[in-house]
Amino acid sequence: MDSGMISKIQKAKQYADEPQRVVIRGLEAEFHGDHDTHMVVYRNGAWSCQCAFFRQRGLCSHTMAMERLLAPMLEADKPAQG
Prior knowledge:
By secondary structure, the protein is α+β, with helices and mostly antiparallel strands. It has one domain (25-82). The chain contains 3 helices and 3 strands. Strands 1-2-3 form a 3-stranded antiparallel sheet. The N and C termini lie far apart (39 Å). The relative contact order is 0.16.
C-alpha cells in the first residue's frame, strides 16, 4: 500500500471519530424491522417512514432508531452555517 493511501485511511479514521464534521441534509434507508421492511427518509430536517404507525402518529420505532444512530450528524441539530 502506498503512502498516499495510508494517509487517506488515517484521515478517514479521524473524520469518523469527529461526526460534527458531517451534516446530513437528506437520506433514504431501508429499515428491516421485525415484521416488514420500510423506507425511512430524512429530508428538510424531518423524518418520514412508510409504516402504518408513522402514518397514524408521525413518529415510529424506525425513525426514532435512525435519530439515535445519526443524531450527531443531522441538519436539524446543527447551527446555521453562513
